[in-house]
Amino acid sequence: MSVQNEAGRQETVAPTASAPAIELRGISKAFGPVQANKDISISVAKGSIHGIIGENGAGKSTLMSILYGFYKADAGQIIINGQEVNISDSQEAIAAGIGMVFQHFKLVENFTVLENVILGAEDGGLLKPSLAKARKLLKQLSDEYELSVDPDALIEDLSVGHQQRVEILKALYRQADILILDEPTGVLTPAEADHLFRILEGLKKEGKTIIMITHKLREIMEITDTVSVMRRGEMTATVKTAETSPEELAELMVGRKVLLRVDKKPATPGAPVIEIENLEVVDEQGVRRVKGIDLTVHQGEILGICGVAGNGQTELLEVLGGYQTGTGKILMNGQEIDLSGKHSNGQTRRARGIAHVPEDRHDEGLILEFQAWENMVFGYHHAPEYQKNALLMDNAGIKAMTQTSMDKFDVRPPNPKLEAKSFSGGNQQKIVLAREIERNPDLLLVGQPTRGVDIGAIEFIHQQIVALRDEGKAILLVSVELDEIMSLSDRIVVMFDGQIMGERLPSETNEGELGLLMAGITDEEKAQ
Amino acid sequence: MNKMPKWADAVLIPLISILLAFFFSGLVIWAIGKDPVVAIKTMVQGAFGSTSGISYTLYYATNFIFTGLAVAVAYHARLFNIGGEGQAMLGGLGVTLVCLAVPWPHWTLALPAAMIGGALFGAAWAFIPAWLQAKRGSHIVITTIMFNYIGAALLGYLLTKVLKVPGSMLTESARFPEGAHLPNFSEILAPFGINFSPNAPANMAFFVALLCTFLFWILIWKTRLGYEIRAYGQSETAAKYAGINPSRIVIIAMLISGGLAGLMAINNVMGEAERLIDNAVEGAGFIGIAVALMGRNHPIGILLAALLFGFLYQGGAELSFWESIPRELVVVIQALVIMFTGALDNMVRMPLEKLFVALGKNKKKEA
Amino acid sequence: MTLKTTFLGAAAALALTSGAALADPAIIFDLGGKFDKSFNESSYNGAERWKAETGGSYRDVELQSDAQREQALRRFAENGFNPIIMAGFSFATALETVAADFPDTKFAIIDMVVDAPNVRSVVFNEHEGSYVVGVAAAYAAEGDTVSFVGGMDIPLISKFACGYAQGFKSVKPEGNVIVNMTGTTPAAWNDPVKGGELTRAQKAAGSEVVFAAAGGTGLGVLQTAADEGMLSIGVDSNQNYLQPGHVLTSMVKRVDNAVYDAFMQGEDLETGIFVMGLANDGVGAAIDEYNEALITPEMKAAMDDATAKIVSGEVVVHDYMSDETCPAY
User: Fold this and answer.
1) Judging by DSSP bridges, how do beta strands C145-152 and C209-213 pair with one another?
2) Can you give the pLDDT at residue A526?
3) pLDDT at res. C8
4) Which residue ranges of chain C lie beneath pLDDT 50?
5) Residue of B167, B322, B330 lying closest to C324 (CB–CB)
6) Partners of residue B322 in chain C, C-beta under 8 Å
7) What domains can be seen in chain C, in order of their start residue?
8) H-type helices in chain B, by residue range?
9) Is B49 left (phi over 0), alpha (psi -120 to 50) or beta?
10) What global pTM score does this model have?
11) CATH fold match for the domains A48-68+87-254 and A272-367+441-527
12) How far is B340 from chain A (nearest CA, A)?
């Protein structure tokens, strides 16, 4: 499977049997002063799986958006099957045989699978013939590629993994030969991800070409034939997957050597900090999200909770953080805390020594329009040390404090007056982390600490969390990244459907076992 | 990261928008067979050419400062208060009750009392929609609009049945006592030897408006409450995470908003009419939305936008006095300005951004 | 064209205008605008009639805001317009101060009395005209119930209603007059749908003749009355033609005459209070080809008799606005 790269410079554009499925030459794109893509050339052979890896903001999504007609490149050519094409909107991309599966699915929730598949590709004004045709084709595709979905199910009733299959079916229905997947496993369980990879292998065998964008090194190693690494808008390397290693790829992504494993001493747990008994959470729609959980986190330990997103971890964190009501009993340092009512809110929780790095830093942890210094006291803005007098806040003092924290936590650029939205994901997370850790809490709640964070920052954030543990603090970590749970936690608890499926020690378990638990399959069931 | 220098964003864009608006207004004036240059001259001359003109301009601007600030406070909490009109009406009622209740000996005593009355009534009128929004989820846009109508009907009733001077045909309250008379600019400036038209409406309330503008700035950017209002406005989920009580912020922001709208009454009711007349607000509550929008919800911006609208009102009046331009057309011109400065912001912004990027690139090349 | 040459320089502009316009009359319309199909429009028609007959020119302006009343008066007076007519009672407060500041300018205000040496106050005896149409209604109705739809609930409109009721009861003392007002806000002047609803309700309560003194709302009243087989009575201008054969008569109020007269007198405008009543054709019941068939001889005789008695002073119609009470209801 030859790929790169000098072939890209050859001048013949006549279609030949050996022409690459897709070839980009010298693509550049700038947004204002930001050069998102700089002279990018790749070429992907027909019937191969090509990975594009890079940190957030490296320009991967921009590149794919150009390919799909969302953006127009400032310079460069797109050549498909040896023919130069001009793609100025998604219709033309589809016509050129390109299908795209977005990270956030573009499905109509209250339509059936079938309706979604034909949406925008109907033949004529009447739906019936289109639907019949689609049904037949869908059945055929399902059989071929293990893409089984019920064509009459409503999208909102399907699991995330099935919804993704609908997106793939949509692309295939439009006769895509080149399939682009943007972070396809971000929302999947390990089992679902495995299934997806089997589907992709099947598609590849049928001669389809697949481009997969991801930041997960493990997936790249597992499924791709070739891989391109992007850094700061440039393509730094294209290599055969078989001839590289995760360490090498990480180094290419970040530009320096990166420690992929967390370096930490064994934990020395002390007294219990928080004891949770029979916690129940019912959300606003009346759905039971957390179903009677018992948990204890001790001083000097990191308790990792893993599970597929949407199995109650979010609600657990929200209740502990004080902005979701629950029932049950929670003791913090031996004292009971209110789970509902007037005294159950973020302020009172913080006063009890609970700090919280929320899962969603854009919607919860930060006010993106606020400047860094304003974010640095967010939630603690009532603290007496941040007030100048009874009326005014001590803005100057807060700015000075922010400067110190930013330096300490290596936030770049270290400018307190910059709006939070101007920082990269990793630096935003460092701001949140700095704010919560610097208040010296007894318990730190951490949700998805490295979601959308670049590898370099991940390393730093992990070190900070471990350092806090080593100071004897209790840490409750929630993450959907199994790697992260495995490497950070001192104890692991798996959540599924609002319940705890089991508890393991990282040294005594593996990703396979955890994956089964995350899918709701207990030891007993497995035995049957 | 900014694509454009700040001064361009703050000055250049509004300026170009206004010029565009005047260009299209000129076309409209030309289309009805009048001379646009003369028309614009008439407007400028009428609004700034005499102390009387200036006084009218400032009088209107004072109204718009109050209602603009009112809209902006709510907007910082992401609440769209369309009810400035009704709140200002009720503010007028509060001011009237205060002014008529006591035989005021001097305006220095009457003004603070009237301010409290106006703000209190305006705030009370905003409280009901605020409470409904905070506790029952009723959309504040709908409820505040409804409350404009209810306010108008309530005032109509009170003016015809309760406050009206018996025997008078005018649907208006009795005149305020002499002691509640706010000094106008002529009276304020006379001690300094400055001659100002004695028969024009700008008065002490203008300075109250300036004070409110300053206090607004302190509130929004220097206090904990302002911090929480802005945080809630930017992200309700984040505010909850931080332990900020959403209902409390909605209600407080709306009370301040309604209070500011109600304060407008010290200008139009106490300062100008010196009695409560029917429909005294005359749309200033709605203009406040445009003023806040154009002023980017910043006090300085609101001040400038209010002055611009004051100019448009006074200049527009002069247009219909001397140019026989029908008042409907004057409204069209005012609307064009609102449209260009508010709604069509991006039309000017985008090309300008590109221009700045291009300029920036050239500079780099030269360097 | 002259305007263009007039405005050479911004500073000189206003002075020049005033020079050119010396002694031209001016009229200021109220917030309703000059084409309100009612009061303002009637004034406008008077001014236009003057213009057509004399070939003169006048300045007019429609106000946008209440604060402009005094401003407009002052600006016109400053620039030498004379006389200056105000259509509407709302100008009273502004006029009081401005008239004193410009003793050499003559002003005329309609529907209001302002006591100043250089002001003509034109008031109409609407109650007298209403009395006469009330008499007509009493003759037109077979039963003993008629009705009234007012616009905004203000004393002036009660003055119409009260005069109408007195006229009706002079014929049918035990009869019943239903009085409804459309609303308490200015919107009540322009709500024909509500006017129609009120009319229908009055019909249900037994009314046979409805008198609408309600601006634009009245159009709905007249329409509905025609649809429901009732008779109606128009107001202000002659509205007989609107629903031919269904409008019994119209209580006309000759605002146009008031404006026309004032313009004709020009700078020599006689000041003081001018009462426009039945005696000087300021108000009256309109009879034309559209309603001739509806006016029976005995009805006509009764109307003429009432008119004569009022003019002679034999009958005094109570003016609601004098004490805000009405003896007839």
Assistant:
1) parallel
2) 59
3) 34
4) 1-22
5) B167
6) 13-14, 17
7) 2-124 (3.40.50.2300), 126-252+284-323 (3.40.50.2300)
8) 6-7, 13-31, 36-48, 51-76, 84-101, 107-136, 140-157, 185-189, 205-222, 224-234, 236-241, 246-263, 265, 284-294, 299-322, 327-338, 345-366
9) alpha
10) 0.80
11) yes
12) 24
CB pair distance less than 8 Å for A381 and B234: no
| Beta strand A499-504 pairing with A491-496 | antiparallel
Question: What pLDDT, on the 0 to 100 scale, is given for residue A524?
Answer: 64
Q: Check residue A387 and report its DSSP letter.
A: B
Q: Could you state, in order of their start, the residue ranges of all structural domains in chain A? A: 48-68+87-254, 272-367+441-527
Q: Does C65 touch chain B (CB under 8 A)?
A: yes
Contact list, C7 vs chain B (CB under 8 Å): 35, 38, 41-42
Q: Which of B52, B160, B280 sits opposite C66 (nearest CB)?
A: B280
pLDDT score for B122: 97
Structural domains in chain B, CATH included, are 51-342 (1.10.3470)
Find tokens 């802005």 and name the residue.
B230
State how far Cα A20 lies from the chain centre: 31
Contact between A49 and A224 (Cβ < 8 Å): yes
- Minimal C-alpha gap between C90 and chain B (Å): 7
Sign of the dihedral defined by the CA atoms of residues C165, C168, C170, C175, in that order:
negative
**Contact with chain B for residue C7, Cβ under 8 A:** yes
Mean of pLDDT over chain B: 89
**Distance between CA B22 and CA B340 in Å, rounded?**
10
Blockwise average pLDDT, block size 10, chain A, 528 residues: 41 54 90 82 92 82 87 89 88 89 86 87 76 85 80 86 88 89 80 87 91 86 92 88 88 77 85 95 88 94 90 93 93 92 90 93 91 95 92 94 94 90 87 93 93 82 93 94 89 93 91 85 65
Dmax of chain B from CA atoms?
81
Helical residues (DSSP H) of A322-445, grouped into ranges = 346-351, 372-375, 395-408, 425-438
Task: Say if residues C87 and C110 touch (Cβ distance below 8 Å).
Answer: yes
Partner B contacted by A435 (CB < 8 A): no
**Coil, helix or strand at residue B112:** helix
What is the spatial distance between Cα A188 and Cα A169, in angstroms, rounded to a whole number?
17
pLDDT digits (tens, 9 = 90+) for B83-138: 999 999 999 999 999 999 999 999 999 999 999 999 999 999 999 999 999 999 89
A135-149, B14-28, B133-147: the lowest-pLDDT one: A135-149
- CATH level 3 topology of A48-68+87-254: Rossmann fold (3.40.50)
Q: What fold, for A272-367+441-527? A: Rossmann fold (3.40.50)
> Scanning every residue of chain C, which has its alpha carbon at the shortest distance from the alpha carbon of B34?
C4
Tell me if residue C146 falls in helix, strand or coil.
strand
Mutate to test the interface with B, among C14, C39, C58, C65 (most CBs of B within 10 A): C65
| Residue where the block lists tokens 């002490």 | B204
Closest-CA residue to C141 (of C309, C296, C301):
C296
Tell me if B234 and A345 make a contact (CB, 8 A cut-off).
no
Residues within 8 A of B (CB atoms), C 208-267 only:
none
DSSP state at residue A504: E
Interchain CB contact of C315 with B (< 8 Å): no
